[in-house]
Amino acid sequence: MEAHSSSPLLLSRKRRREGSNGETEEGERPGKVPRCTVGLKHPAPFADELEPADDKPYLRVSMDEAKRGTPPDRPVRVYADGIFDVFHSGHARALMQAKGLFPNTHLIVGVCSDDLTHKYKGFTVMNEDERYDAVSHCRYVDEVVRNAPWTLTPEFLAKHRIDFVAHDDIPYSSAGSDDVYKHIKEAGMFAPTQRTEGISTSDIITRIVRDYDVYVRRNLQRGYTAKELNVSFINEKKYHLQERVDKVKRKVRDVEEKSKEFVQKVEEKSIDLIQKWEEKSREFIGNFLQMFGPEGALKHMLKEGKGRMLQAISPRQSPNSSPTREERSPSPTFRLPFFTKTSPPPSPPPHHSAARGYPITFHVLVTSDF
């Protein structure tokens, strides 16, 4: 639709919705925009509290005139109606589209009463006053019509000087009609909007009904009584018991998670210790082999020590130029101390031996080889 393209942020975002497999799908997101403080400080007024319009006849504007833009004092009056029960982002997006249909738009929102809603659609979660108040606080709304009619009549359109009616293009069958907006479409006053997929009041109620026990237990924990929740005495005790069981399960789960974390930390520490032990063992083995291996330092040290010992023990060879035995100087004569007191005996006869007590003279040959 051409009217939707006038606003760059109109349909740039889509509601996240759950797929068939439970995963969420997300559409395009707009880029970052500068910070601003644009916003209303007061809720939208109710139509029955406004001053009556002037008596001038109200002339509707055509679609082309509305798209081109109207003077500031003559905005295009667009009407959107609904139940707006459990007001959610889908409602806000529909009103945002209605507000952005034309450059100069005055958005009027009609909210049906409880009597009409319960008669034609069913029971609501919020009462009419709560729904009126929720819509009036939407930033796109300029005026709220309370107790809006189920089917729009010419008198109602003329009373509120409505130019166009905004709603999604899906035929809305109700009150014995295949489409309650059929006559609006035929009159050329219909401006279609798009529904937001994945969010609706019925969806929200379905979630609550589906998880009924969870929400009942939640509210019981928050202080609501079983009478306020319309819960029997037996069911109340059952929910309290389930809550205690869940607490025990949570504690067991926490203990399991903590034990897993502890085991994981122990494994990490053991791996670190093993790695450090391997590094140290490699270093120790390398140092041991370097010292005591086949080509280690100890072998070289032993070789060097052995060589030095052999060199020290083995005598040196006499030089070739050393004097002969005859050329050597006579060796000095040494006498033993116990023979020094005896007087030198006369020369023994040639036939006597040295066993007769004659002093014995020892001649010690001293050489320079030692």
Keywords:
38% helix; phosphatidylcholine binding; disordered N terminus; 370 residues; two-stranded antiparallel sheet; alpha/beta; Rossmann fold; Pcy1-like; disordered C terminus; Cyt_trans-like; 9 strands; 10 helices; choline-phosphate cytidylyltransferase activity
How would you describe this protein?
There is one protein chain. The protein has helices spanning 63-68, 89-99, 114-120, 128-136, 154-159, 182-186, 201-210, 212-221, 233-292, 297-313, and strands at residues 17-18, 24-25, 76-82, 105-111, 143-146, 164-168, 190-193, 333-334, 362-363. The protein is of the alpha/beta class. It has a 5-stranded parallel sheet. β3 (76-82), α2 (89-99) and β4 form a beta-alpha-beta unit. The protein is elongated. The N and C termini lie far apart (127 Å). The relative contact order is 0.08. Residues 1-24, 338-342, 351-356 and 362-370 have low confidence and may be disordered.
Number of E strands: 9
Structural class: alpha/beta
In order across it, which strands form the biggest sheet? 5-4-3-6-7
Number of helices: 10
At the fold tier of CATH, the topology name of the domain at 63-199 is: Rossmann fold
Order of helical and strand elements:
EEHEHEHHEHEHEHHHHEE
CATH superfamily of the domain at 63-199: HUPs
- Terminal residue distance: 127 Å
Give the CATH level 1 class of the domain at 63-199. Alpha Beta
Low-confidence stretches: 1-24, 338-342, 351-356, 362-370
- Give the biggest beta sheet: 5 strands, parallel
- Corresponding CATH architecture of the domain at 63-199: 3-Layer(aba) Sandwich
Summarize the amount of helix as a percent range. Answer: 25-40%
Mean pLDDT: 78
Using the alpha-carbon principal axes, give the shape.
Answer: elongated
Strand content: 5-15%
- Work out the radius of gyration: 58 Å
